[in-house]
Amino acid sequence: MPKISKRFLALSAKVEDRSYSPLEAIELVQTNANAKFDETLEAHVRLGIDPKYTDQQLRTTVALPHGTGQAIRIAVIARGEAVAAAKAAGADLAGDDDLVDQIAKGEMNFDLLIATPDMMPKVAKLGRVLGPRGLMPNPKAGTVTTDLAGAINEFKAGKLEFRADRSGIVHVRFGKASFTPANLLENLKALQETIDRNKPSGAKGRYWRSLYVTSTMGPSVEVDFSALQDLKQEG
């Protein structure tokens, strides 16, 4: 077992064995995020789904109102004039067969891959390389599109793709420790609403099982997800 640091044990001692209100949990995680860098805050949601069944899978996107605080590197596979248009819209990498060949060789210097529909037959052949990393473009996630500029702008602004893992758990970053608690709460609320809105048709019984928030180097804190669902956003 990995050795637990004195710092982590001291921070863990501040977390009570109970569920906290959403804002209270966020503020506690921020207090505990005392590493020498701006820690990322993450939400971990256990859902009552079994993703091995197609009607119990969850894969979608969320537009975080205040972004993630992280720069995202976007690659685009397109052809012809669309390549130049993608670069003009802010893509970090853009190409056609040349980029496909690079990816096939394992060169993946990007966090997100967008493709135009006409290039998907070639992209599909990269499944063994892209699939395990969760980088395969998908129409439901908005990463297979003809509106390259729109997609690039949305993802650069804080739109995130996420999916439930094999255990039915969703892992999503929703900001930085330096954000205001109110902004982090708005981001977390947007995530909750997106998960509820995209509830799989085959989900049975209780949909939400647990919600924890944590920071890169800090302990996790349980959140009262019912209180988060009941929360009404101002505006």
**End-to-end separation:** 48 Å
Shape assignment: globular
- Element string (H = helix, E = strand): HHEEEHEHEHHHEEHEEH
| CATH fold-type name of the largest domain | Ribulose 1,5 Bisphosphate Carboxylase/Oxygenase
| CATH level 1 name of the largest domain | Alpha Beta
What is the domain total for the residues?
A: 2
Name the beta content range.
Answer: 15-25%
Reported for the largest beta sheet, the result is:
4 strands, antiparallel
Q: Tell me roughly what share of residues is in helical segments.
A: 25-40%
Mean pLDDT: 92
Number of strands: 9
Spans of 5+ residues with little confidence (pLDDT < 50)? none
- Derived from helix and strand composition plus strand pairing, the structural class reads alpha/beta
CATH architectural category of the largest domain: 2-Layer Sandwich
Q: Please compute the radius of gyration using only Cα atoms.
A: 19 Å
Strand order of the largest sheet: 7-1-8-9
Instruction: Give me the CATH superfamily of the largest domain.
Output: Ribosomal protein L1/L10, rRNA-binding domain
User: Count the helices. How many?
Assistant: 9
List keywords for this structure.
four-stranded antiparallel sheet; single chain; 9 strands; Rossmann fold; Ribulose 1,5 Bisphosphate Carboxylase/Oxygenase; 235 residues; alpha/beta
Structure description:
By secondary structure, the chain is an alpha/beta fold. The chain has 2 domains: 17-68 and 159-230, Ribulose 1,5 Bisphosphate Carboxylase/Oxygenase (2-Layer Sandwich); 74-157, Ribosomal protein L1/L10, domain II (Rossmann fold), CATH 3.40.50. The chain is built from 9 helices and 9 strands. The strands form 3 sheets. Strands 7-1-8-9 form a 4-stranded antiparallel sheet, with helices on one face. Strand 3 (74-77), helix 3 and strand 4 (93-95) form a beta-alpha-beta unit. Helix 2 crosses helix 8 (181-197). The chain is globular, with a radius of gyration of 19 Å. The protein starts with 5 loop residues before the first helix and ends in a 5-residue tail after the last helix.
